[in-house]
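Changelog entry: the TPM domain-containing protein record was regenerated in this release. Current contents:
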Amino acid sequence: MTSSLSRGRPPRVPSHISVRVAHAVLGAAAGLVWLVLPGMTSQNEAPVAIKEPGPTASAAAAPADEASGTDLVLPVAAVGAAGLLAGYGYIRRVRRTRDRTTPGSAATPPPPASDPPPAGPDEEAREALVLADDRLRAARAELGFAEARYGTEAVAPFAAALAQAGHEWAVAARMRQRYDHGEPAEEAARRHALAGIVGRCAEAERRLDAEAEDFARLRRLTESEGLEAALAVAEERFRELAGRALAADAVLAGLRERYAPTATATVVGNLEQAKDRLLFSTTRLNRARQSADAGDMDRAARQLRSAEGAVTQAAVFVDGVERRAGELRAAEETVPAALTGAQAELARVRRQAPADGGPPEGELRSRLLNADAVLASVRQEITARRPYDPVAVLRRIVRAVGAAVPERGGVLGAAALLVARASADAAEDRVATHRGVVGATARTRLAEARRLLADGDPADRAAADALALEALDLAERDVLAHGTPYTGPDAGPESAAGTGGAVLGGVVPAADPESGPPSGF
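Regenerated structure tokens:
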């Protein structure tokens, strides 16, 4: 068995390297002798043409050749010995340099390949943000089912703890957002910021942990009565969602007929994924009842909580389709008024041009011309009697006019708010239903967009929209990069169990889906 000391040492230089170095040195010495030999043997004689030697010539030359060979024995031996000594000395120096372990050595051995270096502070902060956010989302789902069973008053302390934990996480996310944009700039301050992010996330989880026992006593999932009541609530929600999913299917079909494909791009596949989560929840609800009948209440509680998580995500998918229909209707109704308001704002800016009545110059003039072109393009698009995307059209109006005119209230402010909220809600749905693979950056960008919208400053709505779109794009990239992290027997697209989708959504862990969902409280 290898000792700990030997495991920490760097591997020795293989012996074949020494042999190769010695061969190289000897080869160089032999080459040097070969080059010097003609000069040593020619003396000062003039060169002559090589001829076929006759017997007389050979006999005459023999004593001279023997004398030359005798004279070269000592020089060749000296050169060879010097080469060997030089090669040996070089090998010793290389070994001493590579084996050196004194402080400040420039040749510090790397760690063994089997022992990866620990994650740095930056990666620790990212992981802490993801884990804490996952727990908050799981806790919200659990709280919703508990509230449906016991009422708002009974869950008020847990709702307060969840709000406090959410505040801690929001502060951590804000710190990460600033960190990603270079604030603070000093290296020491940046290290403190990362430590602060980890600390805030730990505090958020601690607040949930503090209520865990009381929350478990409220739900009593490991007792027959409590489990039966919770199963009834989950099954009722399941049946409600199954009916809503059928209705939402018809709604989505209508949206596809009425609007351009980009209008429904954020909800494409929602109903298929909702059905997948519902199938998963069906399996887990059945297993929960079977486990309860067998007296295994702990396993029954795990299966129930997995079903609750899946039902919650199915609701997100169905809600997303219904909400998108409302967004598109509202945007379609707002487009004409937004066009009129945009034209009025541009005219106002032109009236405030220089006193000579000429058009604005420089960058403002370019922005005004671009806004005019955008508005003309929008008018042409909506009057062509072809399907279009009302939310995208509103975004184009808001951005074009906002670049030329400082954002104001009124219809343009309402349009900007509608667009930003639609982007934030789409990003929220993507993170919530794919949290098993979505990373920290998408979550922090989404949190920043939510913060700007909550502050209510109209000037921040364009920035909130941009951040939400970035969060949605980052979440999509994470999903594409990771795929479905579950490769079990029922991970295929034809699986009725839906475990692969549940893993992708973070409802159950990929390593052991049967172990139950990650804890909230």
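Residues 119-219 form one domain.
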